[in-house]
Amino acid sequence: MAAEKLSVVKAINASLRTALENDPKVLVMGEDVGKLGGVFRVTDGLQKDFGEDRVIDTPLAESGIVGTAIGLALRGYRPVVEIQFDGFVFPAYDQIVTQLAKMHARALGKIKLPVVIRIPYGGAIGAVEHHSESPEALFAHVAGLKVVSPSNASDAYWMLQQAIQSDDPVIYFEPKRRYHDKSELDRSAIPAPLHAARTVRQGTDLTLVAYGPMVKTCLEAAAAAEEEGKSLEVLDLRSMSPVDFDAIQASVERTGRLVVVHEAPVFLGTGAEIAARITERCFYHLEAPVLRVGGYHAPYPPSRLEDEYLPGLDRVLDAVDRALAY
Amino acid sequence: MTVDSTAARKPRRGSSKRAGAKTRAAAPGEPELVQLLTPEGERVEHPDYSIDLTADELRGLYRDMVLTRRFDAEATTLQRQGELGLWASLLGQEAAQIGSGRATRADDYVFPTYREHGVAWCRGVDPTNLLGMFRGVNHGGWDPNENNFHLYTIVIGSQALHATGYAMGVAKDGADSAVIAYFGDGASSQGDVAEAFTFSAVYNAPVVFFCQNNQWAISEPTERQTRVPLYQRAQGYGFPGVRVDGNDVLAVLAVTKAALERARTGQGPMLIEAFTYRMGAHTTSDDPTKYRRDEERELWEAKDPILRLRTYLDREGLADEAFFAALETEADALAKRVRDAVRTMPDPDNMAIFENIYADGHALVDEERAQFAAYQASFAEESN
Ligand SMILES: Cc1ncc(C[n+]2csc(CCOP(=O)(O)OP(=O)(O)O)c2C)c(N)n1
Questions:
Q1: Helix (H, G, I), strand (E, B) or coil at B280
Q2: Whose CA is nearest to atom 6 of ligand 1?
Q3: Residue to mutate, A32, A58, A60, ligand 1, most ligand atoms under 8 Å from C-beta
Q4: Tens digit of each residue's pLDDT (9 = 90 or more) over A240-265
Q5: Which of B85, B191, B353 sits opposite A305 (nearest CB)?
Q6: ipTM of the predicted structure?
């Protein structure tokens, strides 16, 4: 099949459609996912084609959504639940952290929890509070959960396929500011493993690691840096739990410098873990300390200030300059 | 109808019956609800709830509803013009909000969700304050203690617990004020709301739960949240619940007054389900044509809360043309004031990102604030 060009939203929709077609145990659940097709239209048309029994409009209760998804999974279903916005996952956080993450271990591996939790996340859409947050570290910190985020249509499609097929709970963060960006999807391709990082641009002077919405920003930064004669490598991490440290290490051993970029607050974020591990692994290869660019230790600000809060080209390039100055 | 009508009963004032007032039973197939003013603008009586208002007071309620609707329409327009990022319209819910808002006393405390612009109006919150959050210049923008009107709450259902805790505090203090929490029919599914019912009941907290059942939670109809009428939920928790015609400002006022009075006099919580309708979209980002039919809206337009009071005022000769003309002028002026205020609303200073994160300060915030300031300053130097 030839590659098609489509948006991230359409790719996720296509992926859900494929999963619903291929496996009668797959269910789609969430608020407004039915007739409305979700507030971002990610589930558009699915209820019409697969019925209310498989594409389920749930009551407005996130703890209920995840809690019942756990029960359905125990009964052999593979629920894919939608949390409407990042800031609304917390009523379900208890179920996710105290129950979903730990049951497999408590049952000595005898039960499996193939639950996927889709969460549109991140900012830059001019929304009111609780609609722009990046809480991935809160989930990555919890053993028993896997945490991933695609940055383009192809990954959106394939990583969701893999997440649904996984017997582990997967938190699937969707970069909502990139929902309408189009890129190629080849449905006959053999996808990379779910937790493998990918080199999206090769370079020799410094490695930029990003995931989700910040991959595009880092590619733009790399293009801008090239005009100044700097060669930046960009790695799309794709998975925040587990993290593909080998891929980062391999890149850093060649470039000698690392900057990690994410929208989430820097303090105790994904970047902190990467900086620590890579410092351990690559101490003698590093020409500069690992730097991080991300959000502040502040609540996500009102939308008129989000451009200042979010890492943009300037802040990424500033960190690049600082790393190269060592 | 009340589940526990004796508990919710309010002593009736002798003079409350107007000549010709009828008691109206629910028509077959219609939900049972407390009604004092029919959709046709006809005054009726209810055995448990009555109200006797002066012409002045009736005109006041009408004025509140008209001004609130105008404010709301102006905000919707401002959103369309790009001045606001989002707006949650209350169109159709004016009676539920004005009736309940006017039932509160200055020392009562209100915990709203995000659509309670009419209640805010009754509490004396400057309407322009409500717009900052939707414009994206702040996350709230008013001092909740100034008018005992708490900040808007986006996370569905959370405030029901805050209201309950506040009410527990009121009771501990031996005060005789009451607390009212607003939420939607969708919110009734949240665990927080169920937990608020539990806490308020076991601690006999002086809190009134005011659920505006506007029939929809974004695209999901009330049937997606419950199989029993929402007001009946209260019974299982051990306090009374009542369904009131949410488009009847008189009935909402009477029922809310009674519930607040109950709370004040130590009789504990009560649930009011105001049966109403969201005439517009959920917010300006929503497209209701995806999930509901125009005929439904038309049906509810016939029950318009403002129209019915207008009919009543006209019929009883309680307001003259001069009143309506003056109100029109006042509404235009309000709209203009709101428009001007929004257009000139300054963007927050960049450093606001780091303000008010901790009451006692925090070293990491101080460090990041300084870094941010230096980084911002570096651009200023470059352009010099
Ligand atoms: C915990 C949580 N989940 C989801 C949302 C997204 N959301 C915002 S409003 C809304 C529907 C609310 O319906 P209802 O409670 O009936 O109130 P209404 O808006 O109709 O007044 C939803 C799902 C949210 N704000 N908070």
A1: coil
A2: A84
A3: A60
A4: 999 999 999 999 999 999 999 999 99
A5: B353
A6: 0.94
